[in-house]
Write a structure and sequence with these properties.
two-stranded antiparallel ribbon; globular; mainly alpha; single chain; 52% helix; three-stranded antiparallel sheet
Amino acid sequence: MRTILSALGLSFLVLTGCSSQKQVETDFIQDNINNAVAQQTLQTNLIEESGKILNPRTIRQDGSIVYVPIDDWCSGFFPGNIWLTYELTGDKKWLPLAEKYTEALDSVKYLKWHHDVGFMIGCSYLNGYRMGDKKEYKDVIIETAKSLSTRFRPHAGVIQSWDADKGWQGTRGWKCPVIIDNMMNLELLFEATALSGDSTFYNIAVKHADTTLANHFRADNSCYHVIDYDPETGEVRGKQTAQGYADESIWARGQAWAIYGYTICYRYTHDKKYLDQAEKIYDLIFKHKNLPEDLVPYWDYDAPNIPNEPRDASSAACTASALYEMSTYLPEKNYKQTADAILKSLGSPAYRAEVGTNGNFILMHSVGSIPHGAEIDVPLNYADYYFLEALMRKRNLEKN
């Protein structure tokens, strides 16, 4: 009898333990949703009171908010954050705000002088198409894909990231610079083919992914930031960095863009080599000797003054979001557990700002570009975006 009672007691403990853990996860998700709603409410109230359509990206040293024009590469993230808040809450008060801030970016569909239109329109219009059932956004998505496709260099097999004849990029001697960030723009091309039936966009995305796979990665599966191509011959002219510590160092956000980008490619193509590459990048990141215990990386894994170097919450948030998707393809792996651990860190007081502080952004401690002396240890709208996306993906996974 004692044995039976003991077994029953153990079973009860296991069952209550599972129930308790599920409640903890639910509470964690809701707590972070509540925090996001509070910060986004303050942020949008400021904008609405101004009578203008403003687009917050970060804060200055004095704490004032930096608003950016629509052609800034980060302009799609704030509208995306509002769509994600709408999706996470189901509260219709967010819908007109999401529409308003998204539709302010309409002319971006014709922008052809840099590659970031995938971020700009993907995070705004594509999210609106998905989350707000805004079928009328389809034409903007397709037109943007056409604009992005003008940057495809067929002889090199890549989408050129930056124009090399102006700005600071014009000082580097590049001909056709391609940055690992460009992998994040491929989702827009894949979606444009799905929406239009025109396979041109899909084929460009695949070719770019394959060329990047061949040239951007080192033997240890870390990636360079910038590969410069000869646009006529496809020859690799140089392997460098723009935002990392050094050409041969491992820039943290570059690895996040890479793991997320190749996970996207697997989603649309089901080509296992892309998922294999995402797994290799995972192994690099999470076995790296300089990854902190809380899994929020320093801005560069080879930065010279570790542990006294800035962390980059944006890299952690982007990686966590990718890992939740990877876990759906490889449920036997521990990708979800790793993502959960990252979110636990980001949702803690060490990284999540108190309501009413931090320029009304959600996360603290991100890095834009230390080599450019820009956005060092500040909030960034894209850190918030990928944090909210990761939170949404976590919730969706745990509903099942």
